[in-house]
Design goal:
Elements lengths: L1 H22 L1 H5 L8 H20 L2 H24 L15 H15 L12 H33 L24 H6 L5 E7 L4 H10 L11 E8 L2 E6 L13 E4 L12 E6 L2 E7 H7 L5 H10 L1
Parallel strand pairs: 1-2
Antiparallel strand pairs: 1-5, 2-3, 3-4, 5-6
Protein name: Methylamine utilization protein MauE
GO biological process, one term: methylamine metabolic process
Keywords: Membrane, Transmembrane, Transmembrane helix
């Protein structure tokens, strides 16, 4: 039957997006988007797996209505992310803007067009529906919880302090700054005192805005700081002591970090990392970083948690 085949396709789509999020957790967490939080990412993966199983196993009429509700909600989230220029992370952090919204709206349209296909099926009373729904719901909840737990485990694994994490976010707080394993970077970072690492991508619009704001905001606050700018191009990070720019500027003291033998951390948005005595004490990424630099005393606020 047409809807039965269609709901299997919807389940596969949800499972695929959940798998992409779980396997690409470092990229999603480093994107600075809606899912750039371990808790939010784990909950999103768990919900998608729960919804996929329930849509595949529930009675057709209930599955149709539940799928319409789920994809309508996802379309609203994707629309909000697109309008606010936030990456929703639905298909991983490198998804072109607007693609999740187009996919969700297409699914909603197809579900509305197929609304009458299953109406003649399973017009059972509440008790019969409950019996048909009890087992699928139990399986769906179990699968969702396992998926959420698996995602948290994956995030813990890629955030191991024994190696360079594949994402730079709140997971760094309290850790020795990872790039200190590079000898040249260790020489550029002061052994004691405060340092601010500013990581910007050449192809990031928000990064260019942050660079434009850099010189005009609170210059006096930066006098007591050692500032290290990093231009984050794929496979080639240009370190610029005392300079902040999304593009290498050709200064004499800049140098390059490459990632031939180690998995490259994914940086998709402006990232500020506050370091004190070589220990990370504060991190701001994505929209938080863009908004932070527009406030007064923003450097003090970034280091504030360590001062309390």
């Amino acid at each position: 039957m047409l809807f039965d085949a269609g709901r299997i396709c919807l389940s596969v789509l949800l499972m695929l997006t959940a798998a992409l999020k779980m396997l690409g957790a470092s990229a999603v967490l480093g994107s600075g988007g809606l899912l750039a939080s371990p808790v939010r990412l784990s909950l999103a993966v768990g919900f998608e797996v729960f919804a996929a199983v329930l849509i595949a196993m529930a009675p057709p009429r209930f599955a149709h209505r539940f799928a319409l509700l789920v994809f309508s909600a996802l379309a609203c989230i994707a629309a909000w992310a697109w309008l606010t220029q936030a990456d929703c992370g639905c298909f991983g952090a490198r998804t072109p803007k607007g693609v999740p919204l187009i996919v969700d709206l297409a699914v909603v349209g197809l579900l509305l067009c197929s609304r009458g296909l299953g109406q003649h099926q399973l017009r059972e009373g509440f008790n019969l529906l409950r019996r048909h729904l009890f087992m699928p719901a139990g399986i769906a909840v179990t699968a969702g919880l396992l998926a959420a737990g698996g995602t948290m485990w994956q995030i813990e694994r890629i955030s191991s302090p024994n190696e360079i994490p594949t994402w730079f976010g709140d997971n760094l707080i309290g850790m020795w700054f990872p790039l200190l394993c590079d000898e040249k970077f260790a020489e550029a970072m002061p052994a004691t005192g405060d340092a601010l690492v500013v990581m910007l991508r050449p192809d990031c619009e928000h990064c260019r805005e942050v660079a434009a704001e850099w010189e005009s905001r609170n210059a006096g606050q930066r006098d007591a700081l050692s500032v290290i700018g990093i231009s984050v191009a794929e496979g080639r990070w240009t370190v610029m002591p005392n300079e902040v720019s999304p593009m290498p500027i050709g200064a004499g003291d800049e140098f390059v970090i490459t990632w031939e033998d180690t998995e490259e951390p994914f940086i998709a948005a402006p990232t500020f990392i506050a370091v004190r005595d070589r220990i990370v004490v504060g991190v701001a990424t994505g929209k938080d970083a863009s908004e932070l630099i527009e406030t007064n005393d923003w450097i003090r606020k970034l280091f504030g948690a360590a001062d309390e």
